Amino acid sequence: MTVDLAVIGGGMAGLVTARTAARAGARVVLLEAASTVGGLVGEHRVAGLDLDSGAESFATRGGQVAALAADLGLPVVTPRSAPARVLHSGRLHPLPATGVLGIPTELDAPGLVEVLGLEGLTRAREDSRLPVQPATAELTLAELVATRMGPAVLDALVRPIVRGVHSAEPEQIAADVLLPGIADRMVAAGSLTAALRQVRAAAPAGSAVAGIDGGVHRLPAALAADAAARGAEVRTEAPVRSLRREDGGWRLAGDGWSLTAEQVVLACPPQRWGFLDGDELAPLAAAGRAWPAPQSADLLTLVLRADALPEHERAGTLVAEPGQGAKALTYASAKWDWVAQAAGSDRVVLRLSYAGGILGTADLAEVGLRDAARLTGTGPPWPAEALDGIAHVRLHPPAPAWATSSVRGPMQQEADALDGLQLTGAWWCGTGLAAVAAHAADLAHRQ
Ligand SMILES: Cc1cc2nc3c(=O)[nH]c(=O)nc-3n(C[C@H](O)[C@H](O)[C@H](O)COP(=O)(O)OP(=O)(O)OC[C@H]3O[C@@H](n4cnc5c(N)ncnc54)[C@H](O)[C@@H]3O)c2cc1C
After folding, report:
1. Fold of 2-40+215-292+401-445
2. pTM score, two decimals?
3. Whose CA is nearest to atom 13 of ligand 1?
4. Whose CA is nearest to atom 12 of ligand 1?
5. Relative to the CA of 353, which ligand 1 atom is closest?
């Protein structure tokens, strides 16, 4: 069998690549190792409910994912607006609604003094008077926030957001990675808060995230079906075992099959590139071995009987304190109408996320009920009889962009040297469906 394009990996990146190329008329085969497509976008059944097991929303920036969903006939939904809160020094505080990465831009906002303390707020206000240093671009996010606004803003607001969303400490990330162009913006605006106010003003109106009615796990299945309808072959349980250059094309082989492709797209992370064969691919394989290892993350999804729970506010929470507990809670039934409707008025659904390795051999129900109480500020663990169902998922997201910056150059060089081979996926272009869909579509158009 000979095709124009072989895509290795059936996560969102591979699926968007395959569908876009098939729609442009290419003969495409997509090869996915697992029994279903989707990769980190998956589905599981908990207490009779079909819920997202990985990604559960997407950033609306760029508009590609919403456009893709609309094109596939999937209804895009916006989350209910519920204030995010932060657990700091054992107390829950609302996160500033006008913040960027937790950095408050309106220092008169109600509630800010409670989370920062009077001293912390006074220090934060110094930002508007401090001179702007031109070397800001080289600072870590922690250095930038601490020098401009003091340690209270860093520890109470920025750290939990960066830890929860980017799985990193602010000390590990250059300010410019999460706040692109911040040095120039500060020079122009005169302070960090003024620069971030301009960033917010320039952002499109409306919710920054959206979802799919019934769950974002509907996207991969719909993409695969549409790609197949356009003539692409989507194979699951088809791990690629060997890829090599042969007669000017690419020879791919798996368990009992082989095919030839003119072009190949690697849409799976370098840790899975054991299939790169032959001298020509040896330098790319070496660059892949130098790529930082993926992280690991644990998710607990709990379905609970509402009448057995103590009174509590139903809102998303981020945790500030380091320690052994969950780093974030998403109150799925308070966030999404479709989850609330599926669960019914007598049940609630929430999801707890943990940095990899924290859960160990703990009793998951016990841990989940304890952290649900802690993150909703309700004290003692929620009662075991409230639990209608629980599910545990361990995922391996790729290393974040800040950890890969030094290995990108060599990888790009090796890939550029190979005619007809392209790279895509969150490991390469950045985490999140918005980044992945935009990059993969662009790449497929260039085939
Ligand atoms: C816990 C968690 C929550 C998240 N939540 C969100 C969210 O709410 N919103 C958001 O936008 N993003 C979220 N993300 C990020 C988002 O899910 C990912 O960025 C995106 O799904 C990555 O897609 P991908 O195609 O690059 O990679 P993957 O989904 O990892 O796909 C790679 C695929 O390659 C396959 N593969 C590997 N080796 C082979 C081989 N030899 N042969 C064939 N196939 C192979 C794998 O089986 C896999 O299916 C979340 C991630 C995690 C971990």
Report:
1. FAD/NAD(P)-binding domain (3.50.50)
2. 0.92
3. 55
4. 432
5. 1
